[in-house]
Amino acid sequence: MVRLDRLVNVLGGYGLRLLRCPVPRSTELRSVVLYEQTAGRVLVGDVLLAVGACSVEEAVRWASIVRAAVVLVRDDVAPAASPLGMEPPDDEHHVAVIVVDPGVSWSEVAAVVYGLVLEGRETESGRGPTDLFALADSLAEAIGGAVTIEDRLARVLAYSRLQQHADRARAETILERQVPEPLRAVFAARGVSTHLESSDEPLFVAEDPDHGLAGRMVVAVRAGRELLGSVWVTCPQPLDGARRRALTDGARTVSLHLLRSRASADLERQVETDLVMQLLEGTADAAMVVSRLGLPQGPMHVIASRAHIAQQERHAALLLSFDRATTGFGWSRPGRSAVADNTLYTVLPGDDVAAARSWITSLQAALPTHLTLLAGISAPATPEDLPAARQEADECLALHETRPSSSVPPAYEESWDDILLQRLRAAARSARAPVRGPVTELRRHDAEHGTQYLATLRAWLQAQGDPSEAGRQLGVHENTIRYRLRKMTELTALNLQDGNKRFAMMIEVAAFDDPRPATATDIIG
To answer: Which residues form the PucR C-terminal helix-turn-helix domain (predicted)?
Structure first.
């Protein structure tokens, strides 16, 4: 069930504000009503939309009659200020009061509230948002032109089957699922974006044969003062009369659909996030949580990822990647995701690392091209072991952050040795690196005299004491290796005969000196 606190937080994003709250914000809300009588009885519910109330007092009285815990009332009938938690004199009704901004219609408020309170139970059982494609078909029939519905980022949400006056630009937009960049530049140059931000009136965009663009009308889809998207209709001439009215009315209907869809998606994501974090933090009922998430019992990977957009606030990229990872209704997605701190975590069923990398590739493809995505993949784990898998995914992500962004996301089964060395390097950055000893002294001598003693020692250790193999690695004769080893033993106490000391030197060289560049096998595709 949705709690009052959740309703207040979501409605705050639409300009509504909590006037006072004498009831616990943990109060559960299960139904929404208007103040009306049906068949001689008053309907009761938890949330009252006080449409027509002339004052806050009247709205609160109505709420008491219908036994509501919260009432929404118009801003113009509410007092300018009222301390939260305080009741007016002689008011014995314990009802939370939320005031509605004049710029937001009751229809829009109803769409959000009904979506949150009622659709939450349905999204978890597989119900999706209202069918925008059916709405696009209806609009196309009424207007007589092909219709496309887009969000505010010019991504295609739905389009009509009717192809009347359709052009190449529309086909490319639908195929790419968003308006192509050259076409967006044309619209920006013609002031389309500026118009949509500031006006609710339809705008005619003239043809542009160079971009395969026939004429079309566009109108903003808005909720109060917030731009949600746009509706486009292909037409050779500007629309007028009944067809123009059908377009503007259709945009208002689309806004209600988008609001309900957003509310449903928002609630679904909240439920999903809570359950995923239970798994990643550890729970005694892991199998039950997996079942509630709609995932099969069995092994699964944890994928940790971070997205970055140059010169933008870091949370913008994180939220965009979370939005893409959780897009879809009816639990049809292969994984379940949650955001914690600055990381997106995804629990993905199966034990195939190739499938996990494929999922990361698909997420990257759904994001803007200028966004960088880094990721790490845990070893397969049972539901009970997902907290440990989360740590593995975090360490693989940290490893990816030290490599080129185009490299293959590291998987724990393949990269555990690199992760171990990464831990040791982290210790070195914490001032735990040795400051004395043979390896440190050779490193210092190389820096001061331009010698290659440390590289020689590394090659000799990796070759397990074979001068010929070490020489091959460095491209020098084996006698050069022997000569350098003699000189190194003169410079420092380099005991190459002691197995423990050789082992310690291998660890120090590997952990604190990593000369390896990214290889061809590290690069995607």
So the answer is: 453-509
